């Protein structure tokens, strides 16, 4: 062996991790034999084990020297990338060969750029041999006999630094002592000391880390020379057959990564995904401890000490984050927060007012990667805790909203506790999605060419090349690789995240301004600008659909006003343009006229579709302030969705319309129907359409699946469910189904389709029935109407491509946006109605009016809404959002009531009897079809 190699090995033996090792053992030549005596056998064996461990970590993580030329070191870039099992086997071989060992270089990166590591971080070999202990004493606190989650398993504990910590066993013993002494002073002192210190808390309730494959291998060696290991044991590791992520291999690899994270030299090693779902907190033990604690100790005692301790902890974390950001790793912070947020009393008393807001502020300051880890940990280990934690956060937000004093200068967006709680709820929201039922991400397939490459759009179309759902992509969702569209059934219903008091208190005009000020920076970096104001539009899950509709309304109106300003500039330079999207149609030819005019606009200048819509019926007088447009949409929807028109078919069972797969209409026709739907949303008009929910999911970019059949064709869904759940062995005889299916066209002719090649010859059995069901659903919901739906979605996208629609609304909420609410509560309408011209809520005719209205059948109530507002649909949020005005229209007379549908005003003469009021009102609402309203 060369002198250089000898120096390398002797130098390695003098490191702190090998203190107590006989120096001569590390410098012996290859020609000398090793003789173990009984007195020094254990010492020699320990020395050999230390050397093997150094080889092990050198192979896995390297020495940290970027100029290393050792072929058996990961830092050289010449070593083969190994798994821990393979590295353990090779470490034994290198030890037997007395191969060269490198000196640890803790100040340098562990791997070269070729090895795929990103950023600089402490090598695990340096952690293993303790070379970084002195510089990281505050980062890796240890207690004799106790190894924390961020202390290397192989490192030497600091005997001179006693860090208090608690475990289930210790706390139970303390409780027994307190009972014997009839005093809780020891418990109070212990809890206060541990829960107020991040170092102490991060070393409490630590899950036992499984031994590494190297430890398992070395334990098998017979007493004496470790070179006597059985060859089959080494070869078993070399084969590396254990691929299970929950295996010991995964645990030790995660441990090595966390040790590097603990030293604060890297925020996220690239390519290391093992362990992101796991936590070092022993959660079952933690919960048992909390149960015993709160059952045996008076709540007042615990509340005082824990609230004070958590407040102190939050303050110390904030100070360390601001002035000593490397003093504590994010993994240790995460460990602390998992323990704290498991407290079952966070939603009570002072915890809610003092401790929880302080903790929330610190949790949301963690990097996105660490927040993602917290979401995964909650989803995997803490499902039973999610609901209670959501209730606590909702209580905190509601309390701050109700008790706060807000103005234009200090709004809810400026309240730190509300903002922090909302951000923490976002992590919980993602955890709920992860913990629920998820569809594969592959079902989200947004074809940009289908949205933009079409002759109908013309050469002037400048639509976004970014998918609508990606324009406002959330950083946390991106980190977790999830999307709300993937969630078939969240663990907690989405509606439970709504906070109505907050939604009522948010001033959406101001919130929208904050949103727009942050949008540009968000598009570029996918992170919010540091100086930007907080906007709830980035956290729309907490807002009710009615409030979110206001955000969309402001966005649409600003675009309309922008088009008006541009028309003024064009007029000033001698190129006047119409500031509105003006449509002139004949009532008897409304479909033909509307589609022709919209097609011309789409071909000449698609941006004109974002102008405010103004409709004029030929031969009729009236200024469109909204009411005429409502009637236009109602009439065109009645015509175009009529099954007799041939573009859509009606399912009699569910009363929903679906695309006719054998329609003779062109793609342009379906594109223009999508334009109509987009224009309705853009102009805040509710339509009487009856699509199944899968249409809105497909509009948002997700393909239909078997589960979507339930809403569209319930009978078929039940039949396929029976096929999937059938337990008998005679499935082929009972169902007699092959992979060829039949369906009818619009004329009633039976058509056949093979779901796979040779489908008629492939019977459905137990082994392939799931494949059959998925292929059948894919054919019905996707492939059979692919051409029609692509054109439909393209037209919809032409109007809504720049809108924050995907950011604000889920598919279920899009349906409400298009169709309105299904809650016909006329008591809400009565409470929201205003009066003018001398009428008040106590006027006799007004009291008679509401008595008559409440007794009307549902159909008559719809007609009343149609008569007074121009639409029989209930707005999002219910009838309380509809501002109806009843105005006095002179004394008693024989005239019928009239209405200004543009302004939701009902002009009601002061009839002298209840019977006359009922007669005139019924005639007005039943014979007002057409433009009989003002």
TrEMBL record:
Compositionally skewed regions (Basic and acidic residues) per UniProt: 1-12
Main location: cytoplasm
Disordered: annotated segments: 1-43, 106-161
All residue ranges annotated as the HECT domain in the record: 605-934
Substrates-to-products reaction catalysed: S-ubiquitinyl-[E2 ubiquitin-conjugating enzyme]-L-cysteine + [acceptor protein]-L-lysine = [E2 ubiquitin-conjugating enzyme]-L-cysteine + N(6)-ubiquitinyl-[acceptor protein]-L-lysine
Biased composition (Polar residues): 15-28, 110-124
Leader sequence segment: none
Any Gene Ontology biological process: protein polyubiquitination
Record-annotated active site: 902
Zinc-finger in keyword set: yes
Assigned EC number: 2.3.2.26
UniProt-listed PROSITE patterns: HECT (PS50237)
Organism: Megalurothrips usitatus (bean blossom thrips)
Name of the protein: Ubiquitin-protein ligase E3A
InterPro entries per record: AZUL, AZUL_sf, E3A/B/C-like, HECT_dom, Hect_E3_ubiquitin_ligase
